[in-house]
Design a protein that fits this description.
The structure is a single chain. The protein is mostly beta strands. It is built from no helices and nine strands. The protein has one domain.
Length: about 120
């Protein structure tokens, strides 16, 4: 992971490629390429800011980021929720392509501790 200006990028170490990226601070309706900027077919958008509950923990004004990334034969959809000063609290992703759905992943934060 590294930050350049307003962009935080996560790298796939085995391939030395951008796995995903986020433009901060999040603002409603902003949009960007989620993964490899020069190759990705889709983008994600900050769709919503709302109060949500994840594993009985309430987050006020969390940001929802949703959209598509990847290539036509290996695309994926993403739906993620971020809380300020905490980070990713909930994530859904579904990969697929021309041959159909390949993988579905659901992830949620169980607990956290701020210092």
């Amino acid at each position: 992971m590294f930050q350049k200006g307003d962009t935080i990028r996560f790298l796939d170490a085995s391939k030395s490629t951008i796995e995903r990226q986020y433009i901060i601070p999040f603002t409603l309706h902003s949009s960007w390429k989620y993964d490899n900027p020069g190759l990705s077919i889709g983008s994600v958008t900050v769709d919503t800011q709302a109060n949500i509950s994840v594993n009985s923990i309430y987050y006020n004004n969390a940001f929802q980021i949703a959209g598509y990334g990847g290539m036509p034969d290996a695309g994926f959809s993403v739906d993620e929720w971020f809380e300020n000063n905490i980070g990713l609290v909930k994530s859904y992703s579904q990969s697929g392509g021309i041959s159909g759905i390949k993988d579905f992943t659901r992830w949620s934060l169980i607990s956290y501790h701020l210092k």
